[in-house]
Design a protein that fits this description.
Elements lengths: L3 E2 L2 E2 L4 E4 L3 E5 L9 E5 L11 H21 L4 E6 L14 E6 L9 H8 L10 H5 L15 H16 L2
Antiparallel strand pairs: 1-2, 3-4, 4-5, 5-7, 6-7
């Protein structure tokens, strides 16, 4: 089955799928473990989901959030939906960001500024905590590149394996 996020074929990035929703790894995550939950049916706004789709979407957010928190050993999560263009949504397909957070990350509510700048695809003002938590990434956004499909496929497989361990 081919899975689309708006017009983008993300089939190889998907690591979890239900009847109405899926979870995929992010092309340019803010932090490791920053993933998206998306309804299979392309709708731009939350209010356009059916009751069944809404229930499935939020059950998927809840389930995957608990797995991401465990897999990435984070202290907390940001769970964010930018519901419409005025809210910063840049892809016209409803989606929920799940972003691992650590007490020492230093972002506080500033994480929302990162999401707002380019719906989670900008990485600025990175603190030194990154090196302690995970592999370093380029903090100068002009030097950042999209991750390769191979890297995203490997991450999706790894996450799928981790989720299926239990």
């Amino acid at each position: 089955m081919t899975i689309f996020f708006s017009t983008f074929n993300v089939s190889k990035q998907v690591f979890y799928k239900t009847q109405y929703s899926y979870a995929l790894v992010n092309l340019k995550p803010i932090v490791p473990g920053h993933i998206l939950i998306v309804p299979l049916r392309k709708v731009p706004r939350l209010s356009e989901l059916t009751i069944e789709e809404t229930n499935d979407f939020f059950q998927t957010v809840k389930f995957i959030s608990s797995k991401i928190e465990k897999i990435y050993s984070c202290d907390s999560l940001n769970i964010a939906i930018q519901d419409g263009i005025a809210a910063g949504q840049s892809v016209p397909h409803l989606h929920c960001h799940i972003i691992p957070r650590y007490l020492k990350d230093g972002y506080g509510d500033g994480i929302y500024n990162l999401l707002q700048e380019s719906e989670g695809y900008m990485l600025k003002n990175m603190n030194n905590w990154w090196k302690e938590v995970c592999e370093p990434m380029e903090t100068d956004d002009s030097k950042r590149h999209e991750r390769t499909m191979e890297i995203m496929e490997n991450e999706a497989k790894w996450l799928s394996d981790e989720i299926n361990k239990e």
